[in-house]
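4.2 Preliminary Data

To establish feasibility before requesting continued support, the project team ran the inverse folding procedure on a target of 118 residues. The structure was first converted into the token representation described in Section 3, and no sequence information of any kind was made available to the design step. The complete token record follows.
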């Protein structure tokens, strides 16, 4: 929570806003802004979203998951253990001729082969 507080304070000070003015913009009390910046309490999700929208930064940045204000990039690759029931179901779907994944898998494999040929 300390890092969150530091980032909130740096953002507020970067645009030269007082805690009072920031509180007005976010719809919270000045004392709440102070507690957030001191790491004594955490802002609500709604307040964090308001910070992110006002400063045009990602929640990943606010929560110190990345130093990049645009946020951390995700590839949505859930961790599925080899041999698990989920993996078996996925493989079954890929090779089912009626499944839309079957066509995607076929296209991906053809594209990979084409890239390898070049």
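Position-by-position output of the design step:
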């Amino acid at each position: 929570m300390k890092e969150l507080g530091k980032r909130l304070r740096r953002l507020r000070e970067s645009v030269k806003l007082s805690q009072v003015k920031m509180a007005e913009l976010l719809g919270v009390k000045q004392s709440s802004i102070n507690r957030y910046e001191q790491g004594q309490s955490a802002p609500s999700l709604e307040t964090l979203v308001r910070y992110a929208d006002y400063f045009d930064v990602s929640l990943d940045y606010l929560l110190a998951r990345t130093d990049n204000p645009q946020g951390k990039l995700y590839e949505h690759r859930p961790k599925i253990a080899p041999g698990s029931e989920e993996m078996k179901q996925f493989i079954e779907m890929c090779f089912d001729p009626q499944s839309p994944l079957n066509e995607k898998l076929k296209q991906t494999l053809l594209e990979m082969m084409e890239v390898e040929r070049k």
